[in-house]
Amino acid sequence: MKALLISPRNQYSFWTFAESCRLVGRKVLCPPAGLLTVAAMLPPDWQLRVVDLETRELTEADWNWADMVMITGMVVHRKSFKETVAEAKRRGKTVVAGGPYPTSMSEEVLAAGCDFLVRGEAENTLPALLEALKEGKTRGVFEHPEKPDVTTSPMPRFDLLRLEDYVVMTVQTSRGCPFDCEFCDVVNLYGRKPRFKTPEQVIAELESLYRLGHRGEVFISDDNFIGNKAHARALLAKLTPWNQARGEPFAYGTQASVNLGQDPEMIDLMTEANFGYVFVGIESPDEDVLAAAHKFHNIRNPLVESLGNITRNGLSVMGSFILGMDAEKPGAGERICSFVELTGLPLVMVNTLQVPPDTTLWKRLARENRRVVDHTSGETTVVPQLNYVPLRPEADILSDHRLAWDYLYEPSRFLARNYRYHLTIRPTRAASAKAEGRPSSRHTAGNRGSLDLHWRSLVAFLRLCWRQGIRSPCRVQYWRNFFGMLKRNPSRLRKYLTVCVQAEDMFRIRATMRQRMGAASEKHDSHARAAAASVQEAGSPQAKPVAQAAP
């Protein structure tokens, strides 16, 4: 059997990071990890070819070669997914679908033309598909009533990738989350009881990436890395010596809940293992909104204090916000802007609510006759469209969304916030040891693992200097910040510049939004100026909140 494993094209969104990828000489941010795991479960005599439509187009040679098409994706891939299935069927191919989108919207996926559909996780459902194929069946839906034991999950087929296409490699160490936020689809897809790979499994996956030549960033793509702290500690105890023994070829990022900020010991273990940042779902600065969304851990753990603790102890934070939830009151966009200025977070994702299928919220809105299924796209940033009937005017929500992006990613304001934030992060462990005259086994930069990466970094830096240090109206500010970081917190200069690179995508999203507003832009500009004045008046955030949040 010759199987073509396809990952659909993404919509342009926050997570595309197309400009950042171009600056560092790569095609796309990260690979389709789920496909690589599925590939490892297929019979050894099958011939496999992975095509990530983010990195290249399908060719006539691909189609002519394949006996079967296996496709996966999330709701955000919905359009490209269905187009690819239609083309496969036009060419007479057998199509197998699996992953979050087929699991959550099975009837739609089957209607699109898929012959076989695998619902849920592949470890305990794929065997039934393989048996059906062996028996000569031509259609079927397969699912298993239990969540699989992920210690049975095989080593992903990283060898099927062109590693040089990607900025970041992904490794999963657990599935599931102990929290039950109303709007989140993690629980219905993966359950509330986290399941874990063994530390030895994770190390084996990292060793595979290392041997294949990857150097640089690895994203631990768990739903919540600290969902079980005992597991996280056990993994870090293995990960730290493995990474250090190889000269720290990998630097890590992950997702974590905000209660990480109340556990300085865990933060210390993570930075020792060379974690550099965490993605945190903040969602809203308003407690009423958090309570209505069942995000109670963001209330129990004071947000500003927790985020400040994470920063002070050496991890940077990428925050996420959602506009449009039921308990939200007017002025939500301005309150998000004030909160971001108060905490100093440079890189934040401001979304409008897209209700994921099969979530608690999805079911409640169906009961209330407030769901709009046709607008379900998973796109929440660049061209947001609500797939539900909100309790406050949709126009106000979208206006708040545009206002927040316009305010937060005005280039000069962003550069100022990014600079303040990175001055507050404590120096790296190696820099601290050197300053105190202590010996250190740590390398000065955990992701300098090869000459290739060194030259890519240099080229990226020169491109950034051209864009922000020469062409930009903020060029004087860029160089002032650069030399300020070099003088005041030099070990964090690399991280500061990395976020400057990522900001190129945020500036592009802001510009795209302003362009699409057309005739409404003048009115919006007036509103944005008034909102900016309101944010400033609320506590002079440009001048002092970072010192309050993360001294």
Verbal overview:
With 551 residues, this protein is of the alpha/beta class. The protein folds into two domains: 2-142, 3-Layer(aba) Sandwich (Rossmann fold), CATH 3.40.50.280; 167-355 and 408-427 and 444-551, Alpha-Beta Horseshoe (pyruvate-formate lyase- activating enzyme). The chain contains 24 helices and 14 strands. A six-stranded parallel sheet has the order 2-1-3-4-5-6, with helices on both faces. Strands 7-10-11-12-13-14 form a six-stranded parallel sheet. Helix 10 packs parallel to helix 11 (264-272) and helix 18 (411-424) packs antiparallel against helix 22 (493-517). The longest helix is centred in the last third of the chain and has 25 residues, at 493-517. The radius of gyration is 23 Å and the shape is globular.
